[in-house]
Amino acid sequence: MEYLPLDKGSHIPFYLQLTAQLIRMIEEGELKPGDKIASERELSETLRISRITARLAIQELYKSGLVYREQGRGTFVAESKMRNVQGFTSFTENMRKRGMQPGSQILQQEVIPAEETLARQLHIYPGDPTLHLVRLRTADGKPIAIQYAHLPLKLCQGLEKEPLTNESLFSVLRTKYSVYPAWTEATVEASSALPEESRLLNIKQGEPVLVVRGITFSETFDIVESVRTIYPSRGFALYLGRQRI
Prior knowledge:
The protein is of the alpha+beta class and 245 residues long. The chain folds into two domains: 14-77, Orthogonal Bundle (Arc Repressor Mutant, subunit A); 91-232, Chorismate lyase. It is 27% helix and 31% strand. The chain has seven helices and eight strands. Strands 3-4-5-8-7-6 form a six-stranded antiparallel β-sheet. Helix 1 (14-27) crosses helix 3 (51-63) and helix 2 crosses helix 3 (51-63). The chain is globular.
């Protein structure tokens, strides 16, 4: 396995540079589910870094659910939880790639304190301010999803005042706040449409919907948002790619 030298002139700490490099290797298939990650000693010797630096990088992967540990055997790449699945990262970019015009209607955009469960998801303290953003997402003017997002306000002070109608949230984060969403951990579950969801999506109450829950990370491994998206099941396809069974 070939590793790139770490950039000594970068403002990003060595352990985060190494974490990003390992994530890239996982995402691009150089490291596959079940593959063993190099040990702290091996990484230290190969990249000429301290074992503490190597340990911190592996801990970041472990905390993010990208790897698992087996006592006495080492650290291994975990099965994919749909990282960077198209459609669950940037809705705006995904719709444009499909040749459709993305849009959004702001239903709620306000600062609220984080309750305990949300604080754990965002790695902040209970009571810390978060931006609660609810949007009806459209494609060519037709409702296609309802999106509920919470963002830690410490990353985006003033975002509650930004005009986000028909704007890409990720684009605004990048250009105005220097926050760069990089990857998402997502899970999908089936549910039934509630009355308000049915009204907004123009479907029957109780009709099947797909609920996508995600945690988005920045390139420096800050948690950017916790997001829940409701899609009508009809006309919506989820591509998972090849899965090991």
